[in-house]
Amino acid sequence: MFEAIYGSTWHHPVAFWVVGLPFLAFLAHRLKVARDRFALSLLTLFQLLILTDAWMTSSWSPFAEGSVAKTAVAVAFVIVGDLRYLVLLQRFGLPPEKARSPLQWLVLPLAASLLVPVASKLVTAPWADNPRVLFLVYELMFAALATGVLVWQLPRRPDARTPGWVRRLTQFEIAQYLLWAAADVVILSGYDVGYLLRLVPNVMYYAVFVPFAWWSAPKEVVS
User: Fold this and answer.
1) What is the reported pTM?
2) Which tens digits make up the pLDDT trace of 118-175?
3) What share of the chain is helix, strand, coil (3-state, %, to 5)?
4) What per-residue confidence (pLDDT) applies to 99?
5) What CA–CA distance (Å, rounded) separates 131 from 213?
6) Does 11 reside within a domain?
7) Less Cβ crowding at N or C end of the chain, within 10 Å?
8) CA–CA distances in Å: residue 25 to residues 49, 76, 100, 142, 160
9) Domain for residue 182, yes or no?
10) How far, in Å, CA of 199 to CA of 182, rounded?
11) Count of beta carbons in the 10 Å neighbourhood of residue 146
12) Are 28 and 44 in contact (CB under 8 A)?
């Protein structure tokens, strides 16, 4: 029963569009009157991309289910989804003089966003016939990466531009990925209720991350 709800277009993409499209319009309006447009421009782009992701990875996608094209698009959007957090982490978690360098806030996050997909694929090669195992390993790896950032990296950045904001974003990522992992453990154990649990991190990822990033940001960054 819960798997059918999870696979429904009412969940993916409709529910995400119902929340996401009005917030995209809100960000576009804020962008017109903002004094500092950089962070708002990033958030607007991220919101547009995640709404596109919700469409392109749903059953309404123009690509056939199981096709190479749809798989490639899904993988690309997974990387982009993680890149949202990693870009904000580097751009606003470094001292201002370092954060302005595209190498620091764009190139390095892009490289980091490839680390977990490649590593998880290699680790789960013996279970290639069960994509749920790949999902679980990916989720645990990214949660471990974000935990490492929270515990070891952020405390070593005392001169970060917005330390509180990037810490909150990191905590959000850890919670989201651990919820996904918990749901997949339940599903792999043979319980359909895991799909119900999985709805929570899905909503966090598709519908809540960008609004949370805007709401939790220092006002001087997004105004």
Assistant:
1) 0.95
2) 999 999 999 988 999 999 999 999 999 999 999 999 999 888 889 999 999 999 999 9
3) 80, 0, 20
4) 77
5) 30
6) yes
7) N
8) 14, 25, 28, 31, 30
9) yes
10) 12
11) 25
12) yes
Task: Retrieve residue 176's tokens.
Answer: 């989201």
In a domain, 131, yes or no: yes
Alpha-carbon radius of gyration of the chain: 18
H-type helices in 62-107, by residue range? 68-92, 96-99, 102
Convert the pLDDT of each residue in 184-194 to its tens digit.
999 999 999 99
Q: Residue 66's pLDDT is what?
A: 87
Tokens representing 175 are: 């919670």
Number of folded domains that form the chain: 1
CATH code of residue 110: 1.20.1070
The confidence score (pLDDT) of residue 34 equals: 85
Give the residue among 172, 166, 183 at the shortest CA–CA distance from 205. 172
Inter-residue contact 191 to 7 (CB < 8 Å): no
